[in-house]
Amino acid sequence: MVKTTLERKGETSIRDRTLIFVRRLPAAQDKVFKAWTDQRELAQWMGPADMTVASVKADAREGGAYRITMRSKEGKEFTAVGQYCEVKPAERIVMTWAWEQAQGHGPVTCITIELKPAGKSTEMRFHHALFEDKDTCNSHRSGWQSIFDKLARWCKTGTLN
């Protein structure tokens, strides 16, 4: 097997710095798409279980930007920012993702969300890459899993209660 430059240097592979999730969500494709692109909908579910959404601004069109601020129970805020690179209604969203910092933003990664009908449900394929290192990737893994649990509850009931 041929090793990549990163692997030869003893660093983590691309696979170790990439997240892929496939989830079946209990809602029609257009509802799941709206959950990802409408700022009122995003405000309902975006963020891990132990956080609330403090604010959302989303202009979900190619070239449009978003800014999502999540607040922990302790009051600490985390803001994700990015740009929509591709928006194909009810099918596909490609966007950048970075954490806002005092001096601009952190490393930029790319998220691709693909939606496909699955009976009365929707199959969501979520791809998030390329993290700087394996630890950062793993911390995002648990965050996204929690977020997708909230999204599934919201898709099923329209609420998180």
Write a structural description.
The chain is of the alpha+beta class. The chain has one domain: Alpha-D-Glucose-1,6-Bisphosphate, Chain A, domain 4. Helices cover 27% and strands 41% of the residues. Helix 2 packs across helix 3 (39-45). It starts with a helix and ends with a helix.
Which characteristics define this entry?
single chain; 4 helices; 8 strands
Topology:
Elements: H1 5-8, E1 19-25, H2 29-37, H3 39-45, E2 51-58, E3 65-72, E4 77-88, E5 92-101, E6 104-105, E7 109-118, E8 121-129, H4 134-157
Antiparallel strand pairs: 1-8, 2-3, 3-4, 4-5, 5-6, 5-7, 7-8
Structural classification: alpha+beta
**What is the approximate shape?**
globular
Q: Which sheet architecture does the biggest sheet show?
A: 8 strands, antiparallel
The total domain count is: 1
Q: What's the total number of strands?
A: 8
Brief description of this entry?
It is built from four helices and eight strands; from the N terminus they run H-E-H-H-E-E-E-E-E-E-E-H. It is α+β, with helices and mostly antiparallel strands. The radius of gyration is 16 Å and the shape is globular.
